[in-house]
């Protein structure tokens, strides 16, 4: 064989192999590479979307925490205000009850003092009658001298 014929034969085989490769081998490889590239691009897009979603979610969480703190502060302030109001009401009620108790005690003491004065006047009147009986050495009738005893009670 001649070198030229070998060269042309190899050139023919090369072109047939190149055509076969481009027709039957190359398209599935390109398709697999394109699919892989698409999967990678989709993965990167999903990762970027996840990052933006994470940032947005973190912002929302921070905002919700801020709102919750504000709400808790408002609730706490309301509770403190209500507690102070209840304490003031309780103090006012306690002061009213103490005042009523003092007034009742003073009234009771006044009534008791009045009773004690009346009882003391009765005893003084009886002692005065008893003393007068001893001095006069005769019996004094309390019914007969009722006017005299009433005047003596009022003077005491």
UniProtKB/TrEMBL annotation:
Gene3D superfamilies: 6.10.250.1580. CDD domains: ATP-synt_Fo_b (cd06503). One of its GO terms (molecular function) is hydrolase activity. The chain crosses the membrane at residues 6-26. Residues 62-122 form a coiled coil. Keywords: ATP synthesis, Cell membrane, CF(0), Coiled coil, Hydrogen ion transport, Hydrolase, Ion transport, Membrane, Transmembrane, Transmembrane helix, Transport. It comes from the Bacteria. The keyword Membrane applies. GO terms for cellular component: endomembrane system; plasma membrane; proton-transporting ATP synthase complex. It is found in: Cell membrane; Endomembrane system. InterPro entries: ATP_synth_b/b'su_bac/chlpt, ATP_synth_F0_bsu_bac, ATP_synthase_B_chain. Its main location: membrane. It is a single-pass membrane protein. Pfam families: ATP-synt_B (PF00430). F-type ATPases have 2 components, F(1) - the catalytic core - and F(0) - the membrane proton channel. F(1) has five subunits: alpha(3), beta(3), gamma(1), delta(1), epsilon(1). F(0) has three main subunits: a(1), b(2) and c(10-14). The alpha and beta chains form an alternating ring which encloses part of the gamma chain. F(1) is attached to F(0) by a central stalk formed by the gamma and epsilon chains, while a peripheral stalk is formed by the delta and b chains. F(1)F(0) ATP synthase produces ATP from ADP in the presence of a proton or sodium gradient. F-type ATPases consist of two structural domains, F(1) containing the extramembraneous catalytic core and F(0) containing the membrane proton channel, linked together by a central stalk and a peripheral stalk. During catalysis, ATP synthesis in the catalytic domain of F(1) is coupled via a rotary mechanism of the central stalk subunits to proton translocation. Component of the F(0) channel, it forms part of the peripheral stalk, linking F(1) to F(0). The b'-subunit is a diverged and duplicated form of b found in plants and photosynthetic bacteria. Belongs to the ATPase B chain family. This is ATP synthase subunit b. The lineage of its organism: Bacteria, Pseudomonadati, Pseudomonadota, Betaproteobacteria, Nitrosomonadales. The gene is atpF.
């Amino acid at each position: 064989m001649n070198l030229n014929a070998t060269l042309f034969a190899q050139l023919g085989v090369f072109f047939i192999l190149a055509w076969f490769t481009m027709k039957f081998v190359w398209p599935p490889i390109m398709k697999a590479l394109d699919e892989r590239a698409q999967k990678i691009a989709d993965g990167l897009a999903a990762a970027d979307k996840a990052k933006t979603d994470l940032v947005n979610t973190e912002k929302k969480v921070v905002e919700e925490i801020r709102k919750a703190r504000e709400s808790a502060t408002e609730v706490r302030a309301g509770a403190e205000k209500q507690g102070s109001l209840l304490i003031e009401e309780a103090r006012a009620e306690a002061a009213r009850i103490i005042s009523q108790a003092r007034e009742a005690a003073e009234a009771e003491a006044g009534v008791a003092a009045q009773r004690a004065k009346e009882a003391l006047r009765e005893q003084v009147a009886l002692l005065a009658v008893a003393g007068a009986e001893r001095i006069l050495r005769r019996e004094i009738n309390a019914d007969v001298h009722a006017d005299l005893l009433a005047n003596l009670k009022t003077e005491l």
